[in-house]
Amino acid sequence: MCQYFSAIVIKDEVLWDANNDSHEDIIAMHKLDDTTKEPNFVRLEVSGGKMTNVNDPAWKIKVDQDYLPNWWKLDKYHNMIMGAFRTCHQQIVKTEGHHIVKQGRVCAYNSATVKACDSAIVEAYNSATVEACNSAIVKAYDSATVKAFNSATVKAYNSATVIKWSGDVKIQLYDNAVLVDRSGEKPKCQIAKNAKK
Fold it and tell me: What pTM was computed for the model?
């Protein structure tokens, strides 16, 4: 599932990257010293809320380290953290409309339509639709539909549908996911090997 917001708090700033939820990568990006038992930063995550609602009161901040700097007080940083979270959410979560993504990651929900190209990474839920081209990577859940071209990679779960149009698409089906292969003269249909009968 698309639980995506990890951040590092330093004394006067929240450090995060919309395309990366790894604390270690964020620490390396900002050249922070992670070799001491008493780091001068705090690792945290925001999780627990409904992905399609940035204002869901169930979103909670979770500190993800044992040793905390003396200056750390969650109350002091709460608004700054949630502001960064809302900005990240706005960049990543799409619930409606048409979006073109050539790099980075997106979580598509509801009636959102995403064209994912190049190095884009997309997770699609509910009835979202994704067109995957080039080297895009897509994970589809629920009743999401993926149209796959070129060398895209698709993993489909639940009742997702993948439509292969052309190219050397890599497809893995799970649960009750379905593949419709339209790349040949006649369409072929395949259901996940572990589908419930």
Answer: 0.84
